[in-house]
């Protein structure tokens, strides 16, 4: 068996998930190849470290303390805020939201004047809008 094939099957070898024939071939290769044997030993040490780190010790009273702290915070929040603030805050935000939506709708609608003579009409605005056509951009930038 070649070294590359051993490296590909090494994890399965260490976890004993290979068929018996392949396990035997990998074992024989590890006995004959010192580089692969060293690599397998390092891999085995790494798996050992991971197993130790994976096992987390759980404190049995952790959940009880967290639950008690959350209940205390909820009671402090309910007692600490007056009724007027708890009611006015959502109402104020709702009114602001409705006003913002109404303003957005009004701003999105085109402006139509009732009389057509108010301010500058479209024909009077064209020279101002097309001001760049009258003068080339190079001359404008040079000034």
Structure, described:
With 143 residues, the chain is mainly α. Among the domains are: 3-54, no CATH class; 69-107. Helices cover 76% and strands 0% of the residues. The chain contains eight helices and no strands. It has helices at 3-14, 20-32, 34-54, 62-80, 83-108, 122-129, 131-134, 137-142. Helix 1 (3-14) packs across helix 2, helix 1 (3-14) runs parallel beside helix 3 (34-54) and helix 2 (20-32) crosses helix 3. It is flat and about 95 Å long. 4% of the residues are buried. The mean pLDDT is 80. This is Zf-HC2 domain-containing protein. Residues 3-37 form the Putative zinc-finger domain.
Would you report the number of β strands? 0
Q: How would you sum up the major sheet?
A: none
Report mean pLDDT, rounded to a whole number: 80
Strand/helix succession: HHHHHHHH
Q: How large a portion of the residues is in β-strands, by DSSP E? A: under 5%
Query: Which consecutive residue ranges, at least 5 long each, have pLDDT under 50?
Result: none
Alpha carbon gyration radius: 39 Å
What level of helicity do the residues show? over 70%
Tally of helical segments? 8
Coarse shape: flat
Q: Report the span from N to C terminus.
A: 80 Å
**Pairing-aware structural class of the strands and helices?**
mainly alpha
